[in-house]
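Entry:
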Amino acid sequence: MPTALITGATAGIGAEFARQLAAKGNDLVLVARDRSRLEQRARELSTEHGVVTSILSADLMTREGLALVEARVAKDDIDVLVNNAGFGLVPPFDENSIDEEVGHLELHVLVPMRLSHAALRQMLPRATGTIINIASVAGFTPRGTYGAAKAWVLSFSRWANINYASRGITVTAVAPGFVHTEFHERMNVDKSTVPSFMWLTADHLVRVALRDVARGKAVSIPSARYKFVVWLTKWMPSRIIAKGALRGR
């Protein structure tokens, strides 16, 4: 059976990717920091879907943790890589410490870059493989360092999909907006300030994303409303977009 490795796999979008990929028959390698939650999630998925589920407890923001996951991705039994781990910073750039900003940048750019590189090195000789990078609608907008990091994810995924599609590899950036997950709770953001129609469910997001991956798309924007938002960013002045409420994933 194909095997998928998913970072940030214990909650939200990562957990939903694990559930839907398991339902399609993929064995799983779940990566996150919390070992107890990983073990619980692995048991649930193995019982429900009859797949082989292993865990890797690692902090991707440490050199040791990243090296551990990178080594696992480099093994040629990983057919699908989902780069999902991430977090947001609420205060503006100048109010965060530079260490917080560097850690934020590394998790959203350095980590998917290194894991994608490791995956490609073992996928290309086999001429098959899938890399899914969780980006954001914020990557299309001037929205501080989160938007800047996600812009890198979008640009890299577009290029990689063009470059490696002919060699059997699909690379897709998934660009959601606001999604009902733990992401905003961890930031202590008041979700009520965002109109209800702007919220997506993780189930819908992942179903659309996997459909777009199967079609070989470089970018998946999982709803008509956010496709419209992205279209607007091409025409609205940057100063107006920068003041808008586009901080969500």
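The chain is about 45% helix and 15% strand.
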